């Protein structure tokens, strides 16, 4: 029970889940999608805030259930995380590869947990990938960020893994991006990132994405862990809540385009042709073959599981908050997830120089165990909720990648640098140019020098043909593309245009 005049800290967490139709299991070689990017909150509320925007979880497709818990996937996406060091109200993108049961994870080249620090290799010679995540352009407000993962056959299957008698596959799951100012492959998970957890765990061998196909029937959801709120009571014992100002992008027609053109792929889409090309066959200039693609259709259904958690109370005491009564789904276009907002005086439109945002109700009253929206004037002043503020201006210390902090990457080391550039989030990144085969993650990928030279040869082919200004992923069928932070786009130094990549070693706020 909250005493009148006191305020209890709380937070909202849960999922918004989009319903989709099932697809055939043969489309098991990756996916792509377009997800709207926007400032979910009006003001950044500090490092407890954690929420993704709409994304997915790509799991391996296993023929039979494993023995015991074998959680492993690619998740990540657009959002804000508690360990974001240099946040703004605008989202960033991380890759989010998860090893067995979160033993480690890999977010960017050089950033992750445990062995995940070495789990991602830089592939693009034209784009910086900071350890804090890939910045979208400040001011992004409803533009679509296109991304997906497809495997590239950059190595052969290895018969042994770190000297142990079990194989590591040859699927280099590669991040492709489609933004207004950058297109193409950016980075890839090393196969060893997945298989290394099985070195001392025989039951886990052959169970991960290095060797298994992807499950095409995925969840498409927005996962929220912490949006701050404040809870108070009046002298009559009625409970009220104020939610940090939460918003969604809205177009001229009053609707919100949230996702578009989700595709899943068979090996015909890319793998088969690239495999032939890298072994001496015809170059692959038409990157994605849509004859090997299947569009995932939205079925017009959504579910919301947002609940209010109160500090000091167990999670099972969380109470639902009624947001869903304001949202319907436009069912006219199965290629899009588009929200229709029900007319209500409790929701408003915030006009910004970047675009318009629909603002959810800020105030709620607890009615029969559910938080129900109320008008600000219906909240008793004695609760003190109207004086509550959530904004916090916080940054954390520098991010340092293994290329700077540990021995990997010291030998043979970079060929040019250091270089510096200031990003839209206010941070400055330091980066060096490495020969692709000599970057830190490849030196820790269980590859022999001969194998690294072979992958160098293949990547040089990719650099020559797959430039940053051509289309790769199928385009969106609605909406406009978002931009990434222009400061992230770089030009290789003369003589390093092919076979070299920029590796960020440090990110910090320079004083």
How would you characterize the overall build of this protein?
This protein has 511 residues and is mainly β. It has a domain of 321 residues. Strands 1, 3, 5, 6, 11, 15, 16, 20, 21, 22, 27 and 28 form a twelve-stranded antiparallel sheet that branches. Strands 2, 10, 12, 13, 14, 18, 19, 23 and 24 form a nine-stranded antiparallel sheet that branches. The protein has a four-stranded antiparallel sheet with strand order 4-7-8-9, with no helix packed on it. A hairpin with an 8-residue loop joins strand 21 and strand 22.
Key features of this structure:
511 residues, mainly beta, 12-stranded antiparallel β-sheet, 5 helices, 34% strand
Strand-helix topology:
Layout: E1 7-20, E2 31-37, E3 50-56, E4 73-74, E5 77-80, E6 92-94, E7 97-98, E8 105-108, E9 111-113, E10 120-122, E11 134-135, E12 143-152, E13 172-178, E14 183-189, H1 191-195, E15 220-233, E16 239-243, E17 247-249, E18 255-265, H2 271-278, E19 293-295, E20 298-304, E21 307-310, E22 319-320, E23 327-329, E24 336-341, E25 348-351, E26 356-359, E27 363-367, E28 370-373, E29 399-400, H3 402-405, E30 416-422, E31 428-435, H4 440-443, H5 449-465, E32 500-508
Antiparallel strand pairs: 1-15, 1-20, 1-21, 2-12, 2-18, 3-5, 3-15, 4-7, 5-6, 6-11, 7-8, 8-9, 10-14, 12-13, 13-14, 15-16, 16-27, 17-26, 18-19, 18-24, 21-22, 23-24, 25-26, 27-28, 29-32, 30-31, 31-32
């Amino acid at each position: 029970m909250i005493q009148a005049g006191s305020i209890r800290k709380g937070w909202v967490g849960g999922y918004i889940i989009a319903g989709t139709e099932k697809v055939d299991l043969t489309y098991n070689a990756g996916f792509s999608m377009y997800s709207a990017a926007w400032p979910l909150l009006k003001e950044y509320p500090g490092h407890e805030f954690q929420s993704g925007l709409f994304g997915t979880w790509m799991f391996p497709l296993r023929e039979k259930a494993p023995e015991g818990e074998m959680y492993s996937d690619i998740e990540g996406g657009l959002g804000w995380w508690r360990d974001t060091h240099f946040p703004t109200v605008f989202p960033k993108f991380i890759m989010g590869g998860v090893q067995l049961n979160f033993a480690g994870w890999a977010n960017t080249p050089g950033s992750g947990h445990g062995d995940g620090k070495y789990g991602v290799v830089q592939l693009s010679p034209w784009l910086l990938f900071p350890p804090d995540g890939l910045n979208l352009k400040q001011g992004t407000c409803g533009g679509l960020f296109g991304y997906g993962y497809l495997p590239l056959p950059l190595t052969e299957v290895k018969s042994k893994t770190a000297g142990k008698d079990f194989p590591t596959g040859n699927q280099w799951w590669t991040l492709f991006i489609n933004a207004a100012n950058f297109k193409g492959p950016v980075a890839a998970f090393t196969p060893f990132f997945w298989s290394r957890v099985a070195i001392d765990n025989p039951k886990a061998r052959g169970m991960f994405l290095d060797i298994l196909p992807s499950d095409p029937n995925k969840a498409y959801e927005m996962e929220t862990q912490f949006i701050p709120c404040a809870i108070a009571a009046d002298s009559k014992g009625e409970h009220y809540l104020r939610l940090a100002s939460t918003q969604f992008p809205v177009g001229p027609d009053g609707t919100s385009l949230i996702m578009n053109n989700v595709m899943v792929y068979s090996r015909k889409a890319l793998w088969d042709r690239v495999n032939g090309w890298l072994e001496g066959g015809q170059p692959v200039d038409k990157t994605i073959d849509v004859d090997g693609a299947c569009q995932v259709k939205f079925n017009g259904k959504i579910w919301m599981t947002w609940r209010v958690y109160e500090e000091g109370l167990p999670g099972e005491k969380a109470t639902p908050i009624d947001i869903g009564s304001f949202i319907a789904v436009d069912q006219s276009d199965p290629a899009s997830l588009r929200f229709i907002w029900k007319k209500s005086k409790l929701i408003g439109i915030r006009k910004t120089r970047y675009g318009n945002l629909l603002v959810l109700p800020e105030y709620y009253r607890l009615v029969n165990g559910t938080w129900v929206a109320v008008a600000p004037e219906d909240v008793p002043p004695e609760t003190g909720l109207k004086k509550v503020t959530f904004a916090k201006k916080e940054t954390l210390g520098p991010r340092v990648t293994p290329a700077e902090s540990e021995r990997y990457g010291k030998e043979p080391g970079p060929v040019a640098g250091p270089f510096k550039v200031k990003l839209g989030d206010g941070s400055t990144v330091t980066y060096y140019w490495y020969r692709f085969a000599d970057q830190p993650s490849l030196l820790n990928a269980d590859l022999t020098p001969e194998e690294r030279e072979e992958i160098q040869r293949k990547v040089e082919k990719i650099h020559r043909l797959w430039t940053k200004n051509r289309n790769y992923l199928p385009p969106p069928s609605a909406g406009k593309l978002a931009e990434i932070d222009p400061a992230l786009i770089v030009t290789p130094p003369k003589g390093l245009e092919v076979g070299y990549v920029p590796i960020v070693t440090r990110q910090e706020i320079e004083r």
